[in-house]
Amino acid sequence: MSKQPWWKGAKGEWYVVVQFLLLGLTVFGPTTLPGWPAWSGVWRIITVVVGLVVGGVGGLFIMSGLFSLGSNLTAVPRPKEDAFMVVHGAYRFVRHPIYSGIVLGAFGLGFLRGGWLGLLYALILFIFFDIKSRREEVWLREKYADYADYQQRVSKLVPFVY
Fold first, then answer.
1. DSSP bridge partners of 94
2. Do the Cβ atoms of 137 and 77 come closer than 8 Å?
3. The pTM is what?
């Protein structure tokens, strides 16, 4: 009997692999298509300011999510066996604040880098985290009896919107 590769594991490890690939593309990928100019002038100044603000808010979401999770923190979508349900801190406003923060950080970086491709990468990350969170929430509903009620009260990725 052959053993499955670690990234195909039952905890959703492949999501983490894809996540890091997308993050690498966001940070190191090209910001414009060949022959397309980067943003410049007044538009560039505005995008730098927007990028710093959006990225900063993303950082706050990430930090609040990390501190609120504490020992529950895991990179894979399946919750730890000994984990408990967290609904305080940033989890009062959004069910996946770390994912939201990473997406906001990606949008902030896209604005800072000054090209449309950076914003496209952030949008792809948003779609990816929406998919990853759907799988994660199946496991969270199985583990926590109150999770379905929490889903009704709190937005998934965008506070008060989605």
1. 155
2. no
3. 0.90
The pair of three-digit structure tokens given for residue 155, joined into one six-digit string: 């937005």
Give the number of residues written for the chain: 162
- What amino acid is encoded at 49 in this protein? V
The whole-number pLDDT of residue 157 equals 96
Amino acid at residue number 151: Q
Is 7 in contact with 17 (CB distance < 8 Å)?
yes
Residue 12 has pLDDT above 90, yes or no: no
CATH number of 12-146: 1.20.120.1630
Could you count the other beta carbons within 10 Å of the beta carbon of residue 76?
A: 17
Alpha carbon distances (Å) from 83 to 2, 78, 125: 31, 10, 26
Alpha-carbon distances, residue 36 vs 28, 30, 33, 59 (angstroms): 18, 11, 5, 30
